[in-house]
Amino acid sequence: MLEVVKKYSLSALQILKIVVPLYILAELLTYLGWLKYISVLFEPIAYLLNLPDEAAIVLLSGALLNIYAALSLASTLELTFQQATTIGTFVAICHSLPLEATVLKRLGIPVVPHVLLRVVAGVAGAFIASSLMEGQNQMVLEVSDFTSTSGSI
Question: How far apart are CA 133 and CA 135, in angstroms?
């Protein structure tokens, strides 16, 4: 039993050595505002997926950081159900790529084919979701839609 705990503790420590520096780097990029300049590369994908240009940073943050970063940025946009579903599909498939690539590399798994497959699958899945939801232009509800100004629900 003690040997198993030791083995898993060492594995967890190795993963933390990867996760913590990448998280700090991601936070630094966000804090310095560099993420928005990098997101320009994702604007053609946003266009292909019928998303507003501002959604490019959401796709990028999901791919490079994590689902929660994409969710927090997406919450600042006014999106239709179609757009929210498209973004959600992409990020569900294609998220945390640098972190996962580092882990794969340590495990001896080829990184480039894996990353390319995830990006292509993310774009394809999001394109299919967008196509299936064509015409769903109703806006996503916001929390403020459920509150009243009189203070009673």
Answer: 6
